[in-house]
Each structure stands twice: as C-alpha cells, then as structure tokens.
Amino acid sequence: MQAYQLGYRVTTAGAPLNAGKAYFYLTGTTTLANVFEDDALTTPLSNPVVADSAGFFPELVYLDPTKEYRVVIKTSADVTIAKYSADPINTIEGSSGVNTADIVDEAVTAAKLGPTAIEDKLGFTPQAAFAGLTSAAINALLNRVGIVEPYIGTTAPGGALICNGGTIGSASSGGTSRANADTATLFALIWALNATDYPITTSAGAGSTRGANAAADFAANKRLPLPDLRGEFVRGWDNSRGVDTSRVLGSAQTDEFEQHSHNILVFSNSFGGTRALSGLNTAGTTLATETAGTASETRPRNVALNYIIRY
Questions:
Q1: Residues near 236 by Cβ (< 8 Å), separated by ≥ 6?
Q2: Does pLDDT of 246 surpass 50?
Q3: Residue 148 and residue 310: Cα distance in Å, rounded?
Q4: Alpha-carbon gap, residue 138 to 117, rounded angstroms
Q5: Main-chain dihedrals φ then ψ at residue 184, nearest 5 degrees
Q6: Does residue 169 contact residue 175 with C-beta atoms inside 8 Å?
Q7: Which CATH class for the 2-93+114-122 domain?
Q8: Are 224 and 190 in contact (CB under 8 A)?
Q9: How would you write 101-140 as a 3-class SS string?
C-alpha cells in the first residue's frame, strides 16, 4: 500500500493555494484514476482532490498499488503548477527487488546542506508564503475574527482592538479605533447586530441607517461601534433558553435586584395595638433606615482587565 503526501501547498508567489486542485491520472495519460482516503481503499476521494481556503489538502492520499499514477496540481482556475506535478508516482516494481533506475549515485555537496538549500528546492522562502498576508487574512485563517477575550495590557496587541465603544470602518471612514480595509470582516459581524445597540454612522460621525448589506456600507465608508466592555461583566447570551429572556446578542443590561420581601416581627402590648421589637413607635412611624453599604453598586469579587476583540 502506498500513500501520496499532499498536505499544505502554496502558489508560485508563496500565497496559500486556496481551493487548489490535485488531479490523479494513470501514468502518461489524461485518464483519471481513483484515489482513496483510507489505506483499505474503501472510500474514494473526489478527483480532483480540492484544498481548503488555507491551501491544505488531505495530508495523505492512498493509491491503488496495482496502478502507476501521474499527479498534476493546479490553481482553483485550473492553472498548472509545474513544480508540484510528477509522473510517474507509485511506481510498480518487479519481483527482482529495488529498481536500480530509482537509485541516484550523487555526492552530497555543501550547497545541498547550506542555509538556503530548502528555499532553493522549494523555489521560494518559507517567509514569502506569509509575506503577502494581511493581519485580517491571517486572523481569518485562524478563525479568530470577532473573538472577545480578557487581556492584561493597556493597549491591544496586533490584530485586536480594545472593546471601548470606539468605531471601525474602511480607510476613509474616520473610524476612531481603526480605519482600515482589514476591519471588513469584523464590520460585517457587528453590522448584523441590533441597530439600536450598534448604530451606524457616516464617515463624519452623523447618524445613518444600514444599507443593503455590510459590504455596501463598508464601501460607503460608514462606521460601526465596537462593544464597550469597560467596567462590564460579560454574560452568556440566553438565545431562547429562558433564563435571561428578551435579550438580543450584544445588548447591554443594567443592574437589578430580584424581587423579594422582608418580614418584620411585631407583638401586642397591654395598651392595645402592635409594636415593633426595635422600638415603641406608634403605627405608621418609621422606626429606622438600615444602610446595607456605602458602595454605588452590588458586585462580586473581581479583577480588572481589558477586553479585546480580534479583527
């Protein structure tokens, strides 16, 4: 049983091979040949095998040991990438043992062990594979856009913004937290939230309304506010569970005490009527006002950290 390693591939420019295609043919032909996702050869893969948006194919593709294959890797637009193509692969050998044609008697030179040997073989430097990626593209690959998390720094790290209610938008939006094309994905997430909690404005900061879609408003250089989590506790969205009802995603909520009551013990005296245990005041007179505390809010123990959001 033989397996062919596809794994991660990039374009000739070093960018991820988004939706790249790996075609497997019978050697020397354009006749497609079945390949499989398991070594038992029970589950065929599509042919071509297609990479994901980050350029990752299935790590291993299993081949029929009775066939010789030819592999051709292309872009999503079916442009062949010559350096990845090979013919044959999965060579069938005779019973005599090792095929001597496969043995290359070649001295290992210093150049082949040099610091750029891998780069020379690949045709590009590994750094080049990421050089053209924006922070938004990298975060999208990592599926981090819109993630909110606590952070101990006073200023946000790269690829994130402080959740302080500042605005975001395009480079011409005048966004107060970030005005850059790389905020488009986060802009779309916030655009989908309740317009009352996250009102949209023009590039001049004047009130506006949401247009046909987030992309149209982003192109029109409008701004949207980030969540303002300064001094706030974050609560899981109820989402129809029935614990914290009538809430929408991203909405704020004021503090509140649950409805309750207190019982006051009274007793009768020899003069008629009732008296409270804490004094002999007549009915209807305030006995005392108890002060439970001097703080301006009710809160649990906590630690103050910044909340950041990824863009």
A1: none
A2: yes
A3: 7
A4: 27
A5: -60, -40
A6: yes
A7: mainly beta
A8: yes
A9: HHCCCCCCCHHHHCCCHHHHHHCCCCCHHHHCCCHHHHHH
Answer yes or no: is pLDDT of 218 > 70. yes
Structure token digits, residue 286: 């305030």
* CA 91/CA 233 separation, integer angstroms: 63
The residue to which tokens 């290992």 are assigned: 108
The domain limits of the chain are 2-93+114-122, 135-225
Pairing of strands 160-162, 306-310: antiparallel
pLDDT tens for residues 36-87?
A: 999 889 999 999 999 998 889 988 899 998 899 999 999 999 999 988 888 8
At 267, is the secondary structure helix, strand, or coil?
strand
Query: Residue 80 pairs with which residues in a beta bridge?
Result: 74
3-state secondary structure 20-48: CEEEEEECCCCCECCEECCCCCCCECCCC
Residue type, 255: D
Gap between the Cα atoms of 4 and 179, Å rounded = 45
Residue the block writes with tokens 């042919």: 47
Q: Give me the sheet containing 167-169, strands edge to edge.
A: 178-179, 167-169, 224-225
How buried is residue 63: exposed, middle or buried, by Cβ count under 10 Å (0-12/13-18/19+)? buried
Q: Spell out the residues 6+ positions from residue 206 whose beta carbon is closer than 8 angstroms to its own.
A: none
| H-type alpha helices, the chain | 117-122, 128-131, 135-141, 184-191, 214-219
Q: pLDDT tens digits, residue range 90-118? A: 765 544 445 555 555 556 555 566 666 66
